[in-house]
Design a protein that fits this description.
The protein has about 425 residues and is an alpha/beta fold. The protein has a domain at about 70-310: Type I PLP-dependent aspartate aminotransferase-like (Major domain) (Aspartate Aminotransferase, domain 2, 3-Layer(aba) Sandwich). The protein has helices spanning about 5-15, 70-80, 90-100, 115-130, 165-170, 180-190, 215-225, 245-250, 275-280, 300-340, 365-370, 375-385, 405-425; strands at about 35-40, 40-45, 50-55, 105-110, 135, 175, 195-200, 230-235, 255-260, 270-275, 345-350, 355, 390, 400. Bound molecules: pyridoxal-5'-phosphate.
Length: about 425
Amino acid sequence: MPLIRSEQLYNRAKKVLPGGVNSPVRYYDPYPFFAVSSHESKLVTADHKTYIDYCMGYGALLLGHGYPSVLDAVREQLDKGTLYCVPTEREIKLAETISKVVPCAEMVRTVNTGSEATMNAIRLARAFTKKKGVIKFDGGYHGAHDYVLVKAGSGAASLPASEGVLEESSAQTTVVPYNDAASLERAIEKNRDTACVIMEPVLANIGLILPDKNYLNDVRKITQQNDVVLIFDEVVTGFRLALGGASEFFGIKPDLATFAKALGNGFPIAAIAGTKEIMQQLAPAGRVYQASTFAGNPVSVSAAIAALETMMEARDALYPKLARTCDSIVEGIKEELEDIGGIDCVINSIGSMYQIFFTAEKVRDEAAAKKADAAKFRKMFDELLKRDVFIPPSQFETCFVSYAHDEEDVDRTVEAYGEALRKIKERR
Ligand SMILES: Cc1ncc(COP(=O)(O)O)c(C=O)c1O
């Protein structure tokens, strides 16, 4: 069914916005639907449709759209001011709260976006080690800046490389396959000038790919033995896999970690956290320069404190519910697949995240993810949308469950997947 209003808006948008959108992953052909409002697990479109949302701000909305305690904190702050650019007690409180729940967070610097956080974490690692090289993983995405836009995931997965990124800059970045400790070890041996390893502990931007047993332990050991700073990019996993992120979930302490997304539950805020020794290098305490007008702005800080306090208070109910909801969806889809029969399909899931790959092969690295049938995935996306279920429009993203998704959502979602998968089977 054509979305007439969205089509009109898209035709208008593409005259003034490159590609009609403000971030590439939002586009899919022939045009994306436009949103007008959201609540709990739902997105409402300009065409008066209401979708069950599994994009959830690409993982930012852990508590759901418009979570009351977060909105109340923001409303209260709006009357007191939106930007001071002088320190506030609430910034201390936010850092103290992050320190309490994140294992490596002896000190914290608040920034605005995940990209800003990873860019400055790498700068800190270089300054600390007095070395230059960066190692990242195939399909790992850490934002759209030059240090890491090399064989990256998410929207960049379909581009060989971004034009405009200097070769001199990307030449400092070595890319190794995920779930392959020997390759990492070899890369470090080959370049003794390696400053840091930056990784999503669970890859969530090339579809969803989980670490093999002991893999993250091996990465920790290898980096420690070679005086290489280990940066966990927890922009997706932070506060989501557990209150203390992947670090708590897997029991591994990196030297630095970056956070964004769930930290503000829909408000723009991010953080770099790590050992005092490394973090103290940041100006004005040290000689690593990082600065931002909007860093620690009182609106986002209020949202983040409220989100974290809610997660802390609800912890015992929140994480089991997220996992239960996600498991029910995954189990439901698996039952549908068994019922239909004959579709090669792998579902990776952990905590509140899942993704489907149309392939017979286990997906444990980027190469396997890229072998999956993307055309079938696209067909599934279209069929789900027709049934009012919105998942991220790319194989190289992850579906996110929130605290707001309920049993009715699960039932409707599983039914929609069942029908969508039957359509895929019919088309063969
Ligand atoms: C793991 C990871 N790191 C960094 C980023 C960049 O964050 P932002 O889009 O807030 O700059 C993203 C964004 O999706 C991400 O998934």
